[in-house]
């Protein structure tokens, strides 16, 4: 029976992915900053562990407690929407600490294990913001595009050791992404001068033509984790799939 470790499982895409893998018969290690079962299944095949991807000691403790694993899913992330000029550097660094450096920190701890056993799968969850330029998301997009380039390079690097590396690119999920985890960091990020520009954008966010469901992301992560081909990118959700097709890049659709 295979084992997957997933970061950022307190809600949203991470929790849905944990449930999906559990339903497929896997052992699941669901991690989050503050451990709680929430709506995750109570099962001998699912464990909840504390893991803050911004703290090396937390990563080390979680991996020690987790034991051997076959797949690691880097899902933990935070969002921010606002005008770049109004976004404090402290907020920018906070976003990068989780979305970019947090992924790298987890993988620096995981990669030696996979390399030594010559096997394993890494799935990094980014965003459809990497597929097309989106206004008022410059900082968030930068943090995710960094992981796209990092992952593409790492896939070559670790392929020599039979370790597969994949990307999942979720579309916009109003109930799970920005609105759920933006919180106080978004306050004051739309200066008055930007209001005429921002208002129609936020109106479009409120009533998007296409949206991504949690199940879309869970299914895409499952496909990526079990894909033995050289496919790197897996868009998740109808809006992400549409953007991927429009971009003309090599995607699994």
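^ Assign residues to that structure.
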């Amino acid at each position: 029976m295979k084992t997957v470790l997933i970061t950022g499982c307190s809600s949203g895409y991470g929790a849905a992915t944990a449930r999906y893998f559990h339903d497929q018969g896997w052992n699941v290690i669901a991690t989050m900053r503050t451990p709680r079962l929430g709506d995750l299944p109570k099962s001998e095949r699912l464990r909840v562990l504390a893991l803050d991807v911004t703290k090396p000691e937390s990563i080390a403790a979680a991996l020690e407690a987790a034991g051997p694993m076959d797949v690691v899913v880097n899902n933990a992330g935070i969002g921010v929407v606002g005008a770049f000029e109004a976004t404090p550097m402290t907020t920018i660094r906070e976003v990068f600490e989780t979305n970019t450096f947090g992924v790298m920190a987890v993988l620096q701890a995981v990669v030696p294990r996979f390399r030594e056993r010559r096997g394993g799968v890494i799935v990094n969850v980014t965003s459809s913001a990497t597929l097309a330029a989106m206004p008022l998301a410059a900082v968030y997009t930068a943090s995710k595009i960094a992981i796209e380039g990092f992952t593409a390079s790492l896939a070559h690097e670790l392929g020599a050791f039979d370790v597969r590396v994949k990307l999942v690119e979720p579309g916009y999920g109003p109930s799970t992404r920005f609105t759920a985890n933006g919180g106080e960091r978004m306050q004051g990020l739309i200066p008055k001068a930007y209001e005429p520009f921002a208002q129609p954008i936020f109106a479009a966010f409120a009533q998007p033509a296409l949206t991504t469901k949690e199940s879309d992301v869970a299914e895409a992560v499952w496909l990526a984790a079990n894909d033995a081909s050289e496919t790197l990118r897996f868009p998740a959700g109808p809006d992400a799939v549409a953007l991927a097709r429009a971009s003309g890049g090599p995607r699994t659709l």
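Helices lie at 12-23, 56-66, 89-117, 138-159, 178-181, 195-206, 214-225, 238-247.
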